[in-house]
Amino acid sequence: MLAPQHRLRSTALFGQTIRKGRKKGSRTVVVHVFAGGGARAEELPVPLQEASTAGPRMGLVVSKAVGNAVTRHDTSRKLRNAFRAVLDEGEIEFPSGTCVVIRALPASARASSEELVADVRSCIRRALR
């Protein structure tokens, strides 16, 4: 389970991350990363001000194209664990107020947890360059 401070729950932040964030993809996922644009916390919109005080926040998009409800739930769980594994490694330095949206592609339903961790890590690294 992902800690509450790392969950992206704001609809406004989801939209802003997808619209303004950097997008990188792999065979199994597409990752949108929005690092707040380097602005100071007081210059950011209210949802981003709240996000800048916590660690990186992550949200998921798992559509019906991935599979039925059981498959989507299983894929969501694997992706949350993949993001948590990337956070626990500590190799990636997330700027303050970073928001990450991970969109699962149909291939993610058949991918192993190790493949998903590698793809999520790779996409986040490329998006933060």
Automatic annotation (TrEMBL):
<dbReference type="InterPro" id="IPR014721">
    <property type="entry name" value="Ribsml_uS5_D2-typ_fold_subgr"/>
</dbReference>
<dbReference type="Pfam" id="PF00825">
    <property type="entry name" value="Ribonuclease_P"/>
</dbReference>
<dbReference type="InterPro" id="IPR000100">
    <property type="entry name" value="RNase_P"/>
</dbReference>
<dbReference type="GO" id="GO:0042781">
    <property type="term" value="F:3'-tRNA processing endoribonuclease activity"/>
</dbReference>
<dbReference type="GO" id="GO:0030677">
    <property type="term" value="C:ribonuclease P complex"/>
</dbReference>
<dbReference type="GO" id="GO:0001682">
    <property type="term" value="P:tRNA 5'-leader removal"/>
</dbReference>
<dbReference type="GO" id="GO:0004526">
    <property type="term" value="F:ribonuclease P activity"/>
</dbReference>
<keyword id="KW-0540">Nuclease</keyword>
<keyword id="KW-0378">Hydrolase</keyword>
<protein>
    <recommendedName>
        <fullName>Ribonuclease P protein component</fullName>
        <ecNumber>3.1.26.5</ecNumber>
    </recommendedName>
</protein>
<comment type="similarity">
    <text>Belongs to the RnpA family.</text>
</comment>
<dbReference type="InterPro" id="IPR020568">
    <property type="entry name" value="Ribosomal_Su5_D2-typ_SF"/>
</dbReference>
<keyword id="KW-0694">RNA-binding</keyword>
<comment type="function">
    <text>RNaseP catalyzes the removal of the 5'-leader sequence from pre-tRNA to produce the mature 5'-terminus. It can also cleave other RNA substrates such as 4.5S RNA. The protein component plays an auxiliary but essential role in vivo by binding to the 5'-leader sequence and broadening the substrate specificity of the ribozyme.</text>
</comment>
<comment type="subunit">
    <text>Consists of a catalytic RNA component (M1 or rnpB) and a protein subunit.</text>
</comment>
<keyword id="KW-0255">Endonuclease</keyword>
<keyword id="KW-0819">tRNA processing</keyword>
<dbReference type="GO" id="GO:0000049">
    <property type="term" value="F:tRNA binding"/>
</dbReference>
